[in-house]
Design brief:
423 residues; mainly alpha; 56% helix
């Protein structure tokens, strides 16, 4: 993911004073709830990824419009729990380092497979592998060295991920799989998503060429996703290293980790890099789920994940609920008015995100909403951005109320220095 700049949570943070713990609320219990929710979300993500694997295996065994549609539906469903887990990223270094393997974007899809040169282009000054087309070429040249790519497997995909130090060279994770299932979206800010035919995976009646390698790529990417999610489930498990590091540290440091994750996702990442930047540029390439036109759902569940963590509750995909002492409880014990304000701001964000979902479900996708000639759509996206920024401001106040010391949130030039965008 792109890192633009950091923004200090609040000048008031350095002046804030107060007891180390909010009266009547155990900070370690709050951290335990946080870890339990993280484990549940990654476990749900793993379950959904395994369901996606079953659908992918069915697709490659018998390619058809029906099996392709089922695999696409499984991918969309897999995004629901995963996006809610992103609130755990920025405060936890182990999660942030790992995240690039599973949710890296944007990606230069010409690295992976065929593209339409009229809409994609033929070269990039920033990426020598812009049109390398792994699927079509068993031999590649990376950073001036020859690479044997004759066997498309997990090892090759891991080796080529961010090849040459270029972040857009994405070969693993949700978005690589998304591209494989939908193909390139050539519609710009017009209606329509990617439209890859099922015959691209049919080795007997192949379209697009190299169907055997395309099948191998899709299967390997899906298997890797399952592997990577298992790693994160283990890390947050009862004996996991990520959980242990959080719970064995100083409670205030753990609470700061929670707030950092919420503020950074809310502000710099979601409001900034994923929403405001694309809106400013009216660029569908900055759309998060750009091949499937599923961006409205990804943004909604990112916001839902922030709300989940603040309230200390998460409803699992099987309907059961994980719930316990929360950041909300801590803040309410210190400043009930601020807690009420934060809850209201979070709900306002969910309402604004719900508008995006409703609009997309009515036939106007997110990339259409950010189009240059779509003032009503632009306004809906901007309203959601404004709501995210507003809830971040309340989080900044929470840092001061809890006397956490200096906490920094991820920033974005699109919000903090708009004149620098595009330069």
């Amino acid at each position: 993911m792109k890192r633009m700049m950091m923004v200090a949570a609040s000048a008031a943070v350095l002046l804030a004073a107060g007891p180390a713990a909010a009266a009547g609320v155990d900070k370690k219990a709050v951290l335990s709830t946080y870890a339990d929710i993280a484990h549940a979300k990654y476990e749900d993500s793993l379950v959904a990824a395994k369901t996606l694997k079953v659908a992918v295996d069915a697709l490659v065994a018998a390619p058809s419009a029906e099996t392709l549609a089922a695999a696409k539906a499984a991918w969309v469903a897999a995004r629901v729990p995963y996006q809610q887990s992103e609130a755990f990223r920025f405060g936890n270094a182990a999660v942030d380092e790992w995240e690039g393997k599973v949710n890296a974007w944007p990606l230069d899809e010409g690295l992976i497979d065929y593209v339409n040169p009229d809409t994609y282009g033929t070269e990039s000054g920033e990426n020598p592998l812009y049109t390398a087309n792994i699927i079509a070429h068993p031999k590649l040249k990376v950073a001036g060295k020859s690479l044997n790519a004759s066997k498309v497997d997990k090892k090759l995909l891991e080796k080529l991920h961010e090849a040459g130090g270029v972040e857009a060279n994405v070969t693993t994770g949700y978005h690589a799989i998304e591209f494989m299932l939908w193909g390139q979206d050539t519609n710009g800010t017009g209606p329509g998503a990617g439209n890859r035919p099922a015959s691209d995976f049919d080795t007997k009646n192949c379209t697009g060429g190299n169907c055997d390698r395309r099948v191998a790529f899709l299967v390997a990417a899906t298997d890797l996703l399952v592997d990577d999610l298992k790693t994160m489930v283990d890390g947050w498990g009862a004996k996991g290293k990520i959980r242990a590091k959080l719970l064995k540290g100083k409670p205030d440091a753990g609470i700061a980790t929670i707030v950092t994750g919420l503020g950074s996702l809310s502000y710099g990442e979601l409001a900034g890099e994923r929403m405001k930047l694309g809106l400013m540029l009216h660029d569908p390439e900055e759309e998060h789920d750009c091949f499937s036109d599923n961006t409205h759902n990804s943004h909604f569940y990112d916001a839902k994940g922030i709300q989940n963590v603040y309230l200390g509750q998460y409803t699992r995909i099987d309907g059961t609920q994980v719930k316990g002492p929360s950041l909300s409880d801590l803040i309410a014990a210190k400043d009930a008015t601020l807690d009420a304000d934060m809850k209201a701001k979070l709900e306002a964000t969910m309402t604004a995100m719900g508008v995006l979902v409703k609009t997309a479900e009515s036939g106007e996708s997110y990339d259409q909403m950010i189009g240059a000639e779509n003032a009503p759509g632009n306004a809906k996206v901007q309203a959601a951005i404004d709501a995210l920024v507003a809830q971040t401001r309340s989080l900044e106040k929470a840092v001061a109320v809890l006397a956490l010391g200096e906490v920094k949130f991820e920033g974005s030039d699109s919000l903090d220095n708009p004149t620098a965008v595009g330069k």
